[in-house]
Design brief:
By secondary structure, this protein is mainly beta. Helices cover about 0% and strands about 50% of the residues.
């Protein structure tokens, strides 16, 4: 059974950094594209990063490009999201997610971890 468990959220001041981790189990990480999305109250879900398993490419929306970096360690079954220069607008629950392809359907996600950025 596929499972994703996120850790690393917390409270940080504007301009600070956080690194989120996602432990994957029950499937081979190298067979799937993996990503992170966030959900803030009253806002639409937004994918903030995706790592393709087939060509190794990464994708980011303009809202986080240059500040967020997604890294995967297939051997360890781990996915990371390094977030730098955080802004209050980044406050949300962050979820680790599994896809067949970054352009495809969301297959599953974890329980989420709260990130709060104070101004």
């Amino acid at each position: 059974q596929a499972q994703l468990v996120e850790t690393g959220g917390g409270l940080v001041q504007s301009g600070g950094s956080l690194k989120l981790s996602c432990a994957a189990s029950g499937f081979s990480l190298d067979q799937y594209s993996m990503g992170w999305f966030r959900q803030a109250p009253g806002k639409e879900r937004e994918r903030v990063a995706c790592s393709s398993h087939d060509d190794g490419s990464t994708r980011y929306p303009d809202s986080v490009k240059g500040r967020f970096t997604i890294v995967r360690d297939n051997a360890k079954g781990m996915l990371y999201l390094q977030m730098n220069n955080l802004e209050p607008e980044d406050t949300a629950v962050y979820y680790c997610a599994r896809y067949y392809f970054c352009s495809g359907t969301l297959l599953g996600w974890g329980q989420g971890t709260q990130v709060t950025v104070s101004s």
